Structure formats: C-alpha cells, structure tokens
C-alpha cells in the first residue's frame, strides 16, 4: 500500500482599498470587458485617471473598473456618445459635492438649533432672576428669588346708598 499524500491548501484573502491602483491595464480591461486600447482612449479624453507606478505603468483601481463599466453602460445601453458621458460624469461629481455640502449645512443647522435651545433656556433663567423696580433714592436692585411677592387687595365696588 502506498501512503496517500495529502496537501493542504490555504486561502488568503487580501483586502485592498477601493481606490488603490492595483490592476495593470490588461487586467482592468478584462474586468471591465473592453479592449485595453479603449482604456487608453478614455484616459486621453480624461474620463479615467489611473494611478501610475514609480516606473510609469498604469495601475487601475476597483473604483476605476467600476467607472469603466459605468461608461460602457452609458455608451452601450443608454446610447450616449463620449461627450455625453463626460457631461454626465461631471454632473454626477458636482451632485456628489453638493450632497456633501448639504449634509454639512444640515449638521451645522442642527448644531445651531442646539445652541439656540441652550440660549433660550439661559434667557429664561435670567428673566426669572429679574424684577421690575422703580428707582427711588435708597432703593436697591435685588434678585427675584429674594423678593416676597406683594399681595394686592382688590376692593369690590360697593353700591352707594
């Protein structure tokens, strides 16, 4: 009997940032299902900007591949030409920036609402401490909490005989 030889395989998973350039042009083209020359043309038009290695090799990220697929969808399925794709991508980027600004303004508005609520609370506390007085010689300003409420007597109108 021969001894059965077992080999164990291990699987290593590497997580790479979505925007880190890791794919050479041939791999990126295959992932995006297009010809490498198309990627070069898109780069020349400014539709995509791959990272560069120290030696100048184009390195495409997962985000680049997603963008290439989006461009392919717009040209193939939606029938846009590259000028239209450029405009759509510009508008999407502008919209993304504006959404970010709106979120920042909403956060700031919430902060200001909190500050207003605190100021209103403080104003109410300060008002509770104030008492009207008539300035007379020898009179003092005192806190409301130190003043006893004055009772006013109301005289009912009595009929005259």
Describe the 3D structure:
With 161 residues, the chain is mostly helical. It has two domains: 16-80, Orthogonal Bundle (Multidrug-efflux Transporter Regulator, Chain: A, Domain 2); 83-134. The protein contains four helices and two strands. It has helices at residues 25-32, 36-45, 62-76, 82-129, and strands at 51-52, 58-59. Strands 1-2 form a two-stranded antiparallel ribbon. The chain is elongated, with a radius of gyration of 38 Å. The mean pLDDT is 83.
Output the keywords:
elongated; DNA-binding; 161 residues; mainly alpha; two-stranded antiparallel ribbon; Multidrug-efflux Transporter Regulator, Chain: A, Domain 2; 4 helices; 2 strands; 2 domains
Helix percentage: 40-55%
Termini separation: 139 Å
Average pLDDT reading:
83
Largest sheet: 2 strands, antiparallel
Secondary-structure arrangement, i.e. CATH architecture of the largest domain = Orthogonal Bundle
Sheet-strand content, in percent, reads under 5%
Q: What's the alpha carbon Rg, rounded to whole Å?
A: 38 Å
Q: Supply the helix-strand structural class.
A: mainly alpha
Q: Number of helix segments?
A: 4
- The tally of structural domains comes to 2
GO molecular function: DNA binding; DNA-binding transcription factor activity
Keywords: Coiled coil, DNA-binding
Pfam family, one: MerR_1
Organism: uncultured Solirubrobacteraceae bacterium
Topology of helices and strands:
Layout: H1 25-32, H2 36-45, E1 51-52, E2 58-59, H3 62-76, H4 82-129
Antiparallel strand pairs: 1-2
Helix pairs in contact: 1-3
